[in-house]
Amino acid sequence: MTLAADLLDIAARIARQAGDLAARRRREGLEIATKSVAADIVTAADREVEAFVRAELERERPEDGFFGEESTAQESRSGITWVVDPIDGTVNYAYGIPAWAVSIAAVEGSADPATWSAVAGVVYNPVSGEMFRASRGGGAWLGDERLSVTSEVGPAGGLIATGFGYDPATHAPTLERLARVMPIARDIRRIGAASLDLASVAAGRMDAYYEKGTHPWDHAAGVLLVEEAGGTVGGAPGGRPGKEMVIAAGPGFYGRLAKLLEPEL
Ligand code: IPD
Hints:
265 residues; alpha+beta; Fructose-1,6-Bisphosphatase, Chain A, domain 1; D-Maltodextrin-Binding Protein, domain 2; 2 domains; seven-stranded mixed β-sheet; five-stranded mixed β-sheet; 7 helices; 35% helix; globular; binds D-MYO-inositol-1-phosphate
């Protein structure tokens, strides 16, 4: 088995267990706390699930680094770092909307999306039971189905997913950006989980996704899914996806979307 296949197996097994744990905790009742701003929340389950994922990874691969949403980072001694969002779509999780996911990626290089190279990644939605998975050079998959991005966007425009940051100070520029994109959109989707938006682009359920202000754990696995499904992913002009911007689409539509997002970047 190759390293990528091995890492993918580990990620999928742990994501499934972690997602099932989160779903169980949701049924038992929620404990919610506030993070950066009032709308930015964390549940006790986010922290417990991240601790579970971290402990399992440490047991399987003690030399690897760890970079997660809810705990301190651990530097890698093997060259591999795990980038983990235990519950992406926390607000959906809290409200009982079935669009949240466990996102786990194994990356090579430093723990920085500007330079790392993702080797394997999974996005698991425990409510639908869908496990999206990808490994570098091995394609993107949902069950037995090999995923590919949409190849063409017709005159009606693209179905475009995006997200809004929690900080109210970002809302006005977010809406201006949306207004610039609308002329090439047949419609917009704001599902509330960046990892699932990216998985949807990989699966051809959405033509594109863009968002400013996401964290590395929101997009580490999803970006690999889109790339392995034949899509194009970028950030600020000429750059990798990052806090400044994440743009993901089929190669034909990518340029049109990126051009409209460029003026402010
Ligand atoms: C958030 C979700 C949301 C996106 C935000 C993320 P969280 O992650 O992915 O869709 O718009 O930028 O922070 O807080 O639910 O893990």
